[in-house]
Amino acid sequence: MSAGVDLQNVSCDFGKFRAVDKANVSIKPGEFFSFLGPSGCGKTTILRMVSGFIDPSEGQIRIGGQDMNGIRPNKRPTALIFQNLALFPLMPVWENISFGLEVRGASKDVRRAKAEELLKLVDLHDSADKAISQLSGGQKQRVAIARALAVEPSVMLLDEPLSALDLKLRQHMRAELRAIQKRTKVTFIYITHDQGEALAMSDRVAVMSQGKIQQISTPQEIYNAPVNGFVASFVGENNIFKGKVTSIDSGRCSFETDVGAFTAALGPAVDASTIARLYVRPEYSRLQAAPAGGANSIPVTVTDISFEGNFIHVHAADRTGRHLTVETRNDGSVTLPAIGSAQYLCFDAATARVLADQGMKDPGIDE
Amino acid sequence: MSELLRRYGHTLTWTFVALTAFWLLVLVILPQLYLLEESFRLYLPLADIGGPRDVYTLANYRSAFEQPMEWKFWLPFASKPVILPIEAPIRVQVFVHTLLYSTVTTVITLVLCYPVAYYLAKVANPKNVPLLFVGLLVPMWVSEILRAFAWFIILAFKGPLNMALVNIGVIDSPIRWMTGFNSVTFGLVYVYLLFMLLPIYSAIQSLDTNQIEAAKDLGAPGWRTHWRVIIPHSKPGIASGCVMVFMLAAGSILVPTLLASTQSRWFTEIIQQAMFESQDWNTGSAYAFMLLVTCTVFVILAMRVFRVKLSDIAR
Ligand SMILES: Nc1ncnc2c1ncn2[C@@H]1O[C@H](COP(=O)(O)OP(=O)(O)OP(=O)(O)O)[C@@H](O)[C@H]1O
Ligand SMILES: [Mg+2]
């Protein structure tokens, strides 16, 4: 039922502007695959190329192994859920859902039955005869999903479907979408600029920036082993130091910065000549009264403490004024340093990564 | 109202209101009321006005139903009339033709305008749309008389259209275009095209393009997308275009006069004859009101049939 989707060297130009640049992805049948990236990076454009509303300027798109070139949107085995849902406001809920069956010539009874069945699947009972305008945001969301599922697509394409919902509902719908995907085993291609959403729901994630795919990996890998500065800083928080690689030794490097030398894991495509930055997550950083032997440590001054319940964020500044954060789990026994006190910020070489600036719009982001 | 006051101040607001009221009352309502009153009085010599013969009567309205004669009925695009086996008053015959061909005009304009409006609103590159609109509007700057007359010349038996068609070999001998109601219908369609195009265009334009794409994505071919999504959405625009074109066509005098064939008479011509040739304003106004009322009823009935609400049109 579900089909894989392959993009081979797919690009899309709008006049002189290149919205998508040589995308290469191979999405497996039944996979929950997300494209994650900031606004305007070309996510919607990729989805519209897969659904057939835009023709790629170059490259090939295959769905279930079949070349999609020249196949119109109404002949593709995909169903798209639009960023604004695009439900038909003049049809009642059940006609919206069964529109795809109506197109295929199903009788009214069959359509009605299918609509009821799908409404149950998306947990929306007794709404078949309601008008679209009578539904809440979350209910509209479900109707849009049911409408797309009705045509039994091999691939579902979802364009930020949860962005219009409030936080609570968004989290609920995340789980729901994931469950629907597992139940139907349809390939989901999901688009979002919300990293939490992408990490929580996906089997694999493609992180995009400025039309280019930066990294394709599992959520864990994306978070723990980002390939470049863009991915590291777009997904999750970091303490960042700019500097230069001075020596390299089997995956480890010495990295010289304005506050001293560190040892860290060496990311791909970095050598002594590239401008690079060192990234370490706040949860891998810790504060100590004395420098730690064997680990990286620099003297800092505590500037602020924010208590988040399960986590505690301690903000500190090194001697150049660089803003650094340490995240500690609140296990009920931590003793917090006093604001203004002098401490050492320490991290292990294995948890820090030196990455190239590549993929960044503005390499000068909070250093 | 308070919004207007806040925005324009007292002087300007009351000037607007007064001018609008003046226009409505003095230039629209009062003359109509005057004609309505006149329509119930007889056309009398000056000396009798105010005298015992000057009474309110329905005689003018009744006169429309006099003079029964053989009913020569023109079917759309026919070159010969059908002789119906019943007799009917001549004015009723003209009236039926007027309603019929106003409807034909409306349908043709709709069929021509809908695809163009759709193209302009959703297919054409938005950069070119202003230019296309200028192209559509410029001919409308020329007065209606000239445009209608131009068609009179083009469609003439020995006119350029026939010459061209004969010369390029599409037809063997010239066609008599101006028979029956052909030329009148043609002229009316041409003259009122924009009144149909603009409301439909703005209705289609207001449709979210994603809805069209959603329908396509669910597998709908073009015609079903139009039938189920685009036309239902643009129904108010289509309805107001149709009402406008129908009313304008039924009330048109220039085109039916200029592009008439020997057989096509329009009801407005009868009104004009009464008013200006016979100088009988009383009968003329009676006929005018009959036209107005019947057309209104006809439009309301048509709206019922197509399930259009008045509030849709006003939207
Ligand atoms: N039809 C078009 N013509 C010209 N430029 C376009 C067109 N569609 C998109 N673009 C441009 O392509 C880039 C990518 O657009 P796209 O809609 O794919 O972004 P996105 O990643 O979906 O962003 P968002 O998260 O805001 O929806 C943008 O810079 C946009 O301005
Ligand atoms: Mg988008």
Describe this structure as you would to a colleague:
The complex is a heterodimer of chains A (367) and B (315). Chain A contains 9 helices and 20 strands. With 367 residues, chain A is an alpha+beta fold. Chain A has 2 domains: 5-224, 3-Layer(aba) Sandwich (Rossmann fold); 238-356, Nucleic acid-binding proteins (OB fold (Dihydrolipoamide Acetyltransferase, E2P), Beta Barrel). In chain A, the strands form 4 sheets. In chain A, strands 6-7-8-3-9-10 form a 6-stranded mixed sheet, sandwiched between helices. In chain A, strands 11-12-13-20-14 form a 5-stranded mixed β-barrel. A 5-stranded antiparallel sheet of chain A has the order 15-19-16-17-18, with no helix packed on it. Chain A is elongated and about 75 Å long. The two termini of chain A are 48 Å apart. The relative contact order of chain A is 0.12. Chain B is mainly alpha-helical and 315 residues long. Chain B has a single domain, classed as Orthogonal Bundle (MetI-like fold), CATH 1.10.3720.10. Chain B is 69% helix and 4% strand. Chain B is built from 13 helices and 2 strands; from the N terminus they run H-H-E-E-H-H-H-H-H-H-H-H-H-H-H. Chain B has a two-stranded antiparallel sheet. In chain B, helix 9 packs antiparallel against helix 12. The longest helix of chain B is centred in the first third of the chain and has 38 residues, at 2-39. Chain B is globular. The interface between A and B is medium-sized, with 26 and 17 residues. The structure holds adenosine-5'-triphosphate and magnesium ion. Magnesium ion (MG) binds next to helix 1 of chain A.
Describe how the helices and strands are arranged:
The complex is a heterodimer of chains A (367) and B (315).
Chain A: E1 5-14, E2 17-27, E3 32-36, H1 43-51, E4 58-63, E5 66-67, E6 78-81, H2 93-97, H3 99-103, H4 108-121, H5 137-150, E7 155-159, H6 167-184, E8 187-192, H7 195-201, E9 204-209, E10 212-217, H8 219-224, H9 229-234, E11 239-249, E12 252-257, E13 260-266, E14 276-280, E15 286-288, E16 296-307, E17 311-317, E18 323-329, E19 342-347, E20 352-356
Parallel strand pairs in A: 3-8, 3-9, 6-7, 7-8, 13-20
Antiparallel strand pairs in A: 1-2, 1-4, 4-5, 9-10, 11-12, 11-14, 12-13, 14-20, 15-19, 16-17, 16-19, 17-18
Chain B: H1 2-39, H2 59-62, E1 68-73, E2 82-89, H3 90-123, H4 129-141, H5 144-155, H6 160-167, H7 182-205, H8 209-217, H9 222-250, H10 254-258, H11 267-277, H12 281-305, H13 310-314
Antiparallel strand pairs in B: 1-2
Helix pairs in contact in B: 1-12, 3-7, 3-9, 5-7, 7-9, 8-9, 9-12, 11-12
The complex binds adenosine-5'-triphosphate (ATP) and magnesium ion.
Residues 43-44, 83, 159 of chain A line the site of magnesium ion (MG).
